[in-house]
Specification:
By secondary structure, chain A is α/β, with parallel strands linked by helices. Chain A is built from twelve helices and eleven strands. Chain A has a seven-stranded mixed β-sheet. Chain A is flat. Chain B has three domains: 132 residues, Rossmann fold, CATH 3.40.50; 138 residues, no CATH class; 108 residues, no CATH class. A five-stranded mixed β-sheet of chain B has the order 6-5-7-8-12. In chain B, strands 2-1-3-4 form a four-stranded parallel β-sheet, sandwiched between helices. Chain B has a three-stranded antiparallel β-sheet with strand order 9-10-11, with no helix packed on it. In chain B, β10 and β11 form a beta hairpin. In chain B, α1 packs across α4. The chains are: A alpha/beta (362), B alpha/beta (482). Chains A and B meet through α8, β10 and β11 of A and β6, α8, α11 and α13 of B.
């Protein structure tokens, strides 16, 4: 039996309410007014209007919160032996089932990219793992590309299922929901939604149309090798990053940037009690690589941006076999000075290596 | 001493070592009865009190903060309290925009011999804080989801630079280029609507130059990094003010700078334009006149009235270009000042204290601390040394809580007091559209009120008001404690 279900536009509220009743915390995109309208994933409550636009900030905070308490600590002096101090640790273990509604395939693919280092590497990160296991991802197929996104260059597309549990595609009166993983299929089978039946074909058509609307694809297959070759080309990186402001907008908006920092934060001013925090870090910051000696292997923005781009298009692919960029384009859209990662990667692919330059001059 | 059992509030006092701390001691030795809510932190001088001390205390649970130093003209170090008086008065007037009752903060002067005066000050202040009750906690207030309206009346045109003028400018730059390391300008970015900074180092680069109303980046941001190089820069009114302010502070050197000035009627508000435009794939064509913006997007013609999408900050532009240009191009006579209140500030003015705190609380839930506001600010010159990221001293926790985020915004705003040239880049570059320019606009208003209409970056010879003092302040009327 097919698990494809149909969700009418008018039934979204009831569907989400049903999920809340079964114990899910549902996150969905909500429009926030401001100088610039932003779309933010926020917990859904009955009656809240939903936006189906692409979110301004990627939903990675659901598996990797901007800051999370790894554990609380408190130090105690023992009265019998005042020189001795004991330490109590208290880890936060509550992870509630969470459903992400109407993220985009590039957001979902971000989770798949994060899964590799956090779950499949040398260490399985228990905090990440529990959040990830508790998360159900319902992605909305993009109807078309946009001016800054480039998922198809990175090996995916507007209806890629990677990272999603359920893929939903908009058709005339609503959406066709298609179970991708067992978790997604079970959720759909247990729901009260009507079967999609013939509407599934309509959804297939819509997905095809979305793929056809995309701009011509660029071949990035040589990027890992080319980026490795020009790694030491200081002139290339200085030129490419001269406008960079070294803020962290690109890394914090990114669905695949996962670098973090771990700090102890005293709660009483004397560090007798405190929390160990894991929080987002950005490779654009000086402190990211600053060593205890004061030496900094990446003293300026050229090396920091080189790291960001090389990680996504060279070193991550070396380790995991795919780019760690889902092509969402948020870094391009929101860079204050319009630094375009697509342009830099293409430039790198076509850049001449030092050896080639030598040959030409000799 | 009458203990206010279980009824105490948390009041923090920053007392100067030489006068007020002695005054409190005198009161104690004289066994003058005092309330016990005040916790004293001894500082070397009232001039040592960073306004951020006060705000950190208020955000972290203090119900009131009192700063007390030597009487003016009686400072142990000569002038510390003169500087303190200016900073603390600015601070007191800054608090309401954050939603904090200014009555929760006070500053005064008590000498070492004035035990009685100390008793009066501390009793009165404690009484007043008790009348206000416990302070609302930022992290506990109800978020207020309200938006400010951006539509304004009497909008002017936007800047269009004629091809002839652009050629003239290019020629002048080409002539100067051999003696310069680079010239800062703008070029087309990812599409015709999005301009980005251009670093002109060759004649080839020069062909990319663009100077119209889509060019919003404040290029002055790059100047401190280029110190030691001979640099040319294209300025309009807002960039010119930023250049002047950095010169006033000695952060860049005039000898290393060649300034090419252009007139400006106004810039386009890209974030609002993008919102109106919606999601698009290809921008095929753009035609811009002073009044109309014509775009061809995904095969469709879209027409916008530029007056509807002029940046609101252009309405407050003082118009006149500060006397800084080495070479000027075009006609500067059309630039006029309208001096309306920025819409984000007018909006905050319309809220009460509680609503303002709720408004910022809702904003901070969206802030991701990406620091695009700070890093695009031409006046944020600390670069990698920002106190927001320092672990020692530990100004900020790494916790991404609304309180920490708000404190970061306060750090940025307060470090711009008397320095902000109003370019609005902080706000324009916020990915989540927070109206943080309101904080700067309010500070600019305070500085103008207190210091005879001073506007940052308008006069290369002026000393920024918070870097100086006068013995008698014309507009600071300290409260009497009688």
């Amino acid at each position: 039996m097919s698990s494809d279900r149909f969700l009418a536009h008018t039934a979204i509220g009831d569907f989400l309410e049903g999920l809340v009743q079964t114990g899910y915390t549902v996150y969905c995109p909500q429009k926030e007014p401001g100088v610039r309208q932003s779309v933010i994933f926020a917990p859904w409550q009955k009656g809240l209007p939903i936006s189906l636009e692409k979110a301004t900030v990627a939903p990675k905070h659901l598996v990797l919160p901007q800051s999370e308490v790894l554990f609380r600590y408190s130090k105690h002096k023992e009265s019998a032996e005042p020189a001795k101090q004991s330490l109590t640790l208290d880890a936060n273990e509550i992870f509630t089932p969470t459903l992400l509604f109407a993220s985009r395939p590039c957001d979902a693919r971000g989770f798949a990219i994060l899964d590799r280092p956090f779950l499949q590497g040398l260490f399985r990160d228990p905090y990440y793992a529990r959040r990830r296991e508790a998360l159900c991802v319902v992605s909305l197929t993009c109807p078309s590309g946009c001016a800054t996104c480039f998922c198809h260059w990175t090996g995916a597309g507007p209806s890629s299922p990677e990272g999603s549990d359920i893929l939903m595609t908009e058709i005339a009166e609503g959406f066709v929901l298609q179970g991708i993983t067992d978790k997604g299929k079970e959720l759909l089978l247990a729901s009260k939604l009507p079967e999609a039946g013939e509407k599934s074909q309509e959804a297939t058509k819509a997905r095809k149309a979305a793929w056809q609307s995309l701009s011509p694809v660029q071949d990035l297959s040589t990027a890992p090798q080319k980026l490795a070759e020009i790694f030491a080309d200081q002139a290339f990186w200085s030129q490419a990053t001269q406008a960079c402001l070294a803020c962290g907008a690109c890394t914090y908006l990114c669905p695949t940037c996962y670098c973090f920092n771990i700090t102890d934060e005293s709660l009483d001013g004397e560090n007798e009690q405190g929390v160990r925090l894991r929080s987002w870090d950005t490779c654009m910051a000086k402190q990211f690589t600053e060593e205890a000696s004061g030496h900094n292997p990446r003293p300026d923005k050229a090396q920091r941006m080189r790291n960001r781009i090389s990680h996504k298009f060279s070193s991550y692919p070396e380790n995991w076999g795919s780019f760690s960029c889902s092509g969402c384009g948020r870094c391009v859209t929101h860079c204050p000075v319009g630094l375009d990662i697509r342009e830099i990667v293409l430039k790198a692919i076509h850049a001449k290596t030092a050896q080639q330059n030598e040959k030409e001059t000799s | 001493m009458p203990a206010l059992a279980n009824n105490e509030l948390r009041i923090v006092g920053f007392l100067c070592n030489w006068c007020s701390y002695g005054g409190a001691d005198t009161a104690g030795v004289a066994r003058a009865s005092q309330p016990t809510d005040l916790r004293i932190i001894r500082v070397p001088c009232s001039g040592r009190v960073d306004p951020l001390f006060v705000l950190k205390a208020l955000l972290n649970g203090a119900d009131g903060v009192l700063v007390s130093g030597c009487h003016p003209r009686d400072c142990h170090y000569g002038t510390g309290n003169f500087y303190a008086r200016r900073r603390l008065e600015v601070l007191k007037r800054f608090l309401p925009i954050l939603g904090i009752d200014p009555a929760r903060f006070s500053y005064t002067w008590v000498s070492a011999s004035e035990g009685q005066r100390w008793q009066k000050v501390v009793s009165r202040f404690t009484e007043e804080i008790h009348a206000l009750g416990p302070a609302p906690r930022f992290e506990a207030v109800e978020p207020l989801a309200k938006a400010c309206s951006w539509t304004q009346e009497s909008k002017g045109p936007v800047s269009v630079i004629s091809p002839e003028l652009l050629e003239q400018l290019k020629k002048a730059i080409a002539d100067k280029l051999p003696e310069l390391d680079c010239v800062l300008g703008w070029q087309e970015g990812r599409d015709l609507l999005h301009s980005v900074p251009l670093f002109i180092r060759s004649e080839d680069d020069l062909t990319k130059l663009r100077c119209d109303a889509t060019c919003h980046n404040n290029l002055v941001r790059y100047l401190p990094d280029l110190k030691g190089q001979k640099v040319g820069i294209i300025v309009r009114s807002c960039e010119a003010r930023s250049v002047v302010q950095l010169l006033q502070e000695g952060l860049i050197s005039r000898e290393e700078l060649v300034v090419f000035a252009l007139p400006c009627q106004g810039l386009l508000d890209l974030p609002r334009l993008e919102e109106a435009l919606g999601r698009y794939q290809r921008l095929e064509d753009l035609t811009l006149t002073e009044t109309t913006l014509r775009l061809r997007v995904d095969g469709q013609e879209r027409v916008f009235q530029t007056a509807d999408f002029r940046q609101s900050r252009c309405e407050q532009c003082p118009g006149e270009l500060p006397a800084i240009a080495d070479q000027s191009f075009g006609d500067f006579s059309g630039q006029t000042a309208s001096q309306t209140l920025p819409p984000e500030l007018a909006f905050l003015d319309s809220l009460n204290l509680q609503e303002r705190m709720g408004f910022w609380r809702a904003c901070m839930e969206r802030c991701i601390l990406c620091h695009a506001c700070r890093n695009s600010c031409p006046m944020c010159v600390c670069r990698d040394q920002c106190i927001a990221e320092s672990r020692e001293p530990h100004w900020q926790s790494a916790e991404a809580s609304v309180k920490e985020k708000f404190f970061f915004q306060i750090i940025h705003a307060l470090h711009l007091a008397g320095r902000c040239t109003g370019c609005g880049e902080c706000q324009a570059n916020c990915p989540v559209g927070l109206p943080i320019f309101a904080l700067r606009a309010h500070l600019n208003r305070i500085v103008s009120e207190l210091f005879d209409g001073y506007q940052a970056g308008c006069d290369p010879k002026a000393v920024p008001p918070l870097l100086t003092y006068s013995q008698e302040e014309a507009h600071i009327h300290e409260r009497s404690w009688e």
